[in-house]
Amino acid sequence: MKDIDEQVAVKQGHWFYGGLTLCPVRIVHLHKRFGSQDPEDPPELAADSSAECFYIRYRPPGPHGQWQSGGMAMSLREAMFLAQRKLGPVLQWED
Q1: Is the whole-model pTM more than 0.90?
Q2: For residue 55, which of 39, 40, 41, 67 has the smallest C-alpha distance?
Q3: Which of the residue ranges 1-10, 28-37, 53-62 would you say has the lowest mean pLDDT?
Q4: Residue by residue, what is the 3-state secondary structure of the chain?
Q5: What pLDDT, in 10s, does the model give residues 8-54?
Q6: Which terminus of the chain, N or C, has less C-beta within 10 A?
Q7: DSSP β-bridge partners for residue 71
Q8: β-pairing, 68-73 with 91-93?
Q9: Are the CB atoms for 94 and 79 separated by under 8 Å?
Protein backbone atom coordinates (compact mmCIF):
# COMPACT_ATOMS: atom_id res chain seq x y z
CA MET A 1 0.00 0.00 0.00
CA LYS A 2 3.06 2.23 0.16
CA ASP A 3 2.83 3.01 -3.58
CA ILE A 4 -0.55 4.67 -2.95
CA ASP A 5 1.31 7.77 -1.74
CA GLU A 6 3.08 8.04 -5.10
CA GLN A 7 -0.20 8.24 -7.07
CA VAL A 8 -1.46 11.48 -8.57
CA ALA A 9 -4.18 13.09 -6.47
CA VAL A 10 -7.62 13.56 -8.03
CA LYS A 11 -8.48 16.04 -5.26
CA GLN A 12 -6.26 17.82 -2.78
CA GLY A 13 -6.43 20.50 -0.19
CA HIS A 14 -5.59 21.36 3.39
CA TRP A 15 -7.03 20.79 6.82
CA PHE A 16 -6.28 22.68 10.00
CA TYR A 17 -4.96 20.63 12.90
CA GLY A 18 -6.28 22.17 16.10
CA GLY A 19 -7.81 24.88 13.97
CA LEU A 20 -4.35 26.45 13.45
CA THR A 21 -1.76 24.20 11.80
CA LEU A 22 -2.11 23.80 8.02
CA CYS A 23 -1.73 20.15 6.92
CA PRO A 24 -2.18 18.56 3.46
CA VAL A 25 -4.92 16.13 2.50
CA ARG A 26 -5.33 14.30 -0.81
CA ILE A 27 -7.57 11.75 -2.47
CA VAL A 28 -6.13 9.24 -4.93
CA HIS A 29 -8.05 7.01 -7.33
CA LEU A 30 -7.04 3.37 -7.74
CA HIS A 31 -8.53 0.40 -9.53
CA LYS A 32 -7.80 -1.81 -6.53
CA ARG A 33 -9.56 -2.37 -3.24
CA PHE A 34 -7.06 -3.45 -0.63
CA GLY A 35 -8.30 -6.31 1.53
CA SER A 36 -7.72 -6.73 5.24
CA GLN A 37 -5.23 -9.60 4.71
CA ASP A 38 -6.70 -11.14 7.88
CA PRO A 39 -7.11 -14.92 7.48
CA GLU A 40 -10.06 -14.87 9.89
CA ASP A 41 -12.03 -12.52 7.63
CA PRO A 42 -14.21 -13.90 4.83
CA PRO A 43 -12.27 -14.20 1.54
CA GLU A 44 -14.15 -11.31 -0.07
CA LEU A 45 -12.93 -8.98 2.71
CA ALA A 46 -9.46 -10.45 3.25
CA ALA A 47 -8.25 -10.48 -0.36
CA ASP A 48 -7.43 -7.54 -2.60
CA SER A 49 -9.88 -7.11 -5.45
CA SER A 50 -10.36 -5.08 -8.60
CA ALA A 51 -12.67 -2.11 -7.97
CA GLU A 52 -12.83 1.65 -8.49
CA CYS A 53 -11.76 3.12 -5.14
CA PHE A 54 -10.81 6.51 -3.75
CA TYR A 55 -8.31 6.58 -0.89
CA ILE A 56 -8.02 9.50 1.52
CA ARG A 57 -4.49 10.36 2.61
CA TYR A 58 -3.50 13.11 5.03
CA ARG A 59 -0.44 14.30 6.86
CA PRO A 60 -0.44 15.20 10.54
CA PRO A 61 1.54 18.24 11.70
CA GLY A 62 5.29 18.02 12.06
CA PRO A 63 8.32 18.14 9.79
CA HIS A 64 8.44 14.41 9.13
CA GLY A 65 4.75 13.57 9.08
CA GLN A 66 4.07 10.54 6.93
CA TRP A 67 0.89 10.14 4.91
CA GLN A 68 -1.82 8.55 7.04
CA SER A 69 -4.87 6.60 5.88
CA GLY A 70 -8.14 8.45 6.14
CA GLY A 71 -10.17 5.58 4.74
CA MET A 72 -11.52 4.37 1.40
CA ALA A 73 -14.65 5.19 -0.55
CA MET A 74 -16.29 3.98 -3.74
CA SER A 75 -16.79 7.51 -5.16
CA LEU A 76 -14.99 10.84 -5.04
CA ARG A 77 -18.00 12.50 -3.44
CA GLU A 78 -18.09 9.90 -0.68
CA ALA A 79 -14.32 10.23 -0.15
CA MET A 80 -14.66 14.00 0.26
CA PHE A 81 -17.44 13.47 2.81
CA LEU A 82 -15.37 10.90 4.73
CA ALA A 83 -12.34 13.21 4.76
CA GLN A 84 -14.41 15.99 6.30
CA ARG A 85 -15.84 13.61 8.90
CA LYS A 86 -12.35 12.43 9.84
CA LEU A 87 -10.45 15.72 9.71
CA GLY A 88 -13.13 18.17 10.75
CA PRO A 89 -15.17 20.89 9.13
CA VAL A 90 -12.16 23.17 8.56
CA LEU A 91 -11.03 21.35 5.43
CA GLN A 92 -10.47 23.32 2.24
CA TRP A 93 -10.29 21.70 -1.20
CA GLU A 94 -8.39 23.22 -4.10
CA ASP A 95 -10.35 23.56 -7.34
Answers
A1: no
A2: 67
A3: 1-10
A4: CHHHHHCCEEEEEEEEECCCEEEEEEEEEECCECCCCCCCCCHHHHCCECCCEEEEEECCCCCCCCCEEEEEECCHHHHHHHHHHHHCCCEEECC
A5: 999 999 999 888 889 999 999 998 888 888 989 988 888 878 889 99
A6: C
A7: 56
A8: unpaired
A9: no
